[in-house]
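Replying to the earlier thread about multi-chain prediction with a worked example.

Input:
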Amino acid sequence: MKNIYLCGFMGCGKTTIARVLGQRLALPSYDLDQLIVEQYRMTIPQMFARGEAFFRQAETQVLQATGSTLGVYATGGGILTQAENGPILRKLGTLVFLDTPFDLCYERIQGDENRPNAVSRTKEELLSLYRSREAAYRRWSHLSVPEAGTPEQVADAVLQKLLSAAE
Ligand code: S3P
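Result:
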């Protein structure tokens, strides 16, 4: 079995769904941002204060290291802005796009000071960021799942798609 990676916009529910999916599969679940914070001993805003490129380098490095630990991983919403990360994700596991409507993401992320790429933008700017990233989520993911229902229902929908893809 390979790792499972969830991708999608900030606030799409990756961390919650990764946790439920991990429980269903009896696998550990991880949040890539959390792993970065632990490894670098800095908060995400502190890393962005050094420049987004600094954070992105750390993100790719920590992503590469996930190859040695089987689990379900929630990735950061900007992971596919780096050209090298799509192929890495596909090589290390199955990539699942959590397709959540913008308004729902926005409700969850607005004003979140822990998300420098959200707090620095207006709603219109975030919508255009969402639109600009959507194609990459679809292009690189093996599967996409709409975020409809409870976390348990969404995790079950992911599981079903994973099982049918494996047939
Ligand atoms: C980012 C999303 C964040 C985190 C960082 C940058 C982005 O993760 O990686 O703040 O550029 O979309 P979440 O998607 O978990 O909020």
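The radius of gyration is 15 Å.

Feel free to reuse this layout for your own posts.
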